[in-house]
Amino acid sequence: MEELIQDFMRHDLEAIKASGSDDFNKLENIDEGINEIFEFIIEGKANEIKLITANNQYSKSLGTVSVTFYTGQYEVNYPDGSNIYTILLVKKGESPCCSLQNIKVNKYDSPPIDLTKFTFKGKGFMHYIVLFLTILIPIFIVINLVKCVRTKNLKRKWLWFLFILVGIYGVTFNWYTGQIGMSLITKTETGIHINFINFNILGAGVTKSGPFEPWLFELGFPLGAIIFWFKSKKLARTKNDTVTENE
User: Fold this and answer.
1) Fewer CB within 10 A of the terminal residue: the chain, N end or C end?
2) Which residues fall within 8 angstroms of residue 90, CB to CB, at 6 or more apart?
3) Cβ contacts of residue 47 below 8 Å, gap of 6+?
């Protein structure tokens, strides 16, 4: 894949087409498409070419011929920016590996991994609120789980335990953009959808789906923990009143 990247960096149209599969070279206006990709490639000498991800995507059979696809993602860094190459290669049957099936090149002013890394630089008040709740909600839930386990003569204890364990609905917070999304109501190209069931274990979570993807914070509403908190207070008062009467 690195040799192919070098061909694109040199704007070597013929070498690229020679590396392409039959399907790739049969694309309409293939020369114009490759030249459009050249416009996204940063000029000058690259500082480094770094492999980000690579995998055997999937295999299938076309009649008696097996077809295997491979994907790779490379970061090419320059003094003035970065290019990200996403490459799809194909191997058919016993033919030599591999031919170019598809390629996508993105241009960035700085390394994209730096753009989505977890940092407090330039973050606003809402970022700190979300981080605080991401820590507070699980702690609050765990405290009530312990209360639930230790409460004697509690009816349907296991149902209370499950109810306390999860947060329902809530919000999703993009750490990079600061954008807030609702998990109860989502808007897509096909319309507005209401998600009737959505749970978060311990009421919060943090995910990052890929090296160039932002950190996403998911906060669920700890309804069960809140209800049990007040119930435990009521049970404690009832127990104290009973002890006082017996005295």
Assistant:
1) C
2) 21, 23, 67, 68, 69, 70, 98, 99, 100, 101
3) 77, 78, 79
- Give the position of tokens 């013929």: 14
CA distance 155 to 105: 60
What is the pTM (predicted TM-score) of this model? 0.63
Claim to verify: residue 121 and residue 232 sit in the same structural domain:
yes
pLDDT digits (tens, 9 = 90+) for 33-56: 999 999 999 998 998 898 888 887
Would 247 be classed as within a structural domain? no
Domain residues for 18?
2-110
Are residues 177 and 201 both part of a single domain?
yes
Which of 64, 85, 110 marks a domain boundary?
110
Note whether 100 and 149 are same-domain residues.
no
d(CA 112, CA 121): 16
124-143 pLDDT, tens per residue?
999 999 999 999 999 999 99
